[in-house]
Write a structure and sequence with these properties.
Layout (H helix, E strand, L loop, with lengths): L1 H7 L21 H14 L12 H18 L15 H11 L4 H6 L11 E3 L6 E3 L1 H7 L8 H5 L17
Antiparallel strand pairs: 1-2
Helix pairs in contact: 3-4
């Protein structure tokens, strides 16, 4: 029936350990965890490294590595293939940061996502270019100038980082 037909449209499924949640380390007590979370809040989510764990920058490196491989592999996908990436909040926000080459400051302004929410990159008129949907932009709390295609296309230097390789440009 309909389920069989849907399965026929799936090109492939792959697990990638680079898209896991951040490693928050090992703790002996609840108080120790709360102390580290308070330190991270004061220090900043991107650079704070949990004892025996990771920083946001570490997660960003893993996402960058994933995107480098993804960019090479997508050349073999059928035209107009939709890709679904299932992962955790911080990893999703790092994905958006890297895809659009956002600065750490802009990343730090993004809001954490409620559980089970979807962030969607929609194709523009050019099938090789993408933008965040309005709902996704609102969920992430991105600056107003980035909620339209031109906010990304013109690469507002105040909001966007360097044009490093690895993620597609709008």
């Amino acid at each position: 029936g309909a389920l069989q037909e849907q399965k026929l449209n799936i090109v492939g499924v792959r697990e990638d350990a680079r898209l896991r949640d951040a490693d928050m380390g090992r703790y002996n007590s609840r108080e120790e965890v709360l102390k580290c979370l308070a330190e991270r809040e004061a220090y900043g989510t991107f650079f704070y490294r949990f004892p025996h764990g990771e920083s946001g920058a570490d997660v960003c490196d893993r996402v960058s590595s994933f995107l480098d491989v993804f960019q090479r592999e997508k050349r073999s996908f059928p035209i107009n293939t939709n890709v679904v990436v299932v992962t955790h909040d911080l990893t999703i926000r790092m994905f958006v940061k890297r895809w659009f080459h956002l600065t750490v400051e802009t990343f730090s302004q993004m809001r954490p996502l409620p559980p089970s929410r979807i962030i969607e990159l929609a194709r523009t008129e050019d099938p090789q270019k993408f933008k965040l949907t309005e709902e996704s932009s609102q969920l992430l709390g991105l600056p107003l100038s980035m909620k339209d295609e031109n906010g990304y296309a013109f690469r507002n230097k105040k909001l966007l980082g360097s044009l490093s390789t690895g993620a597609p440009f709008l």
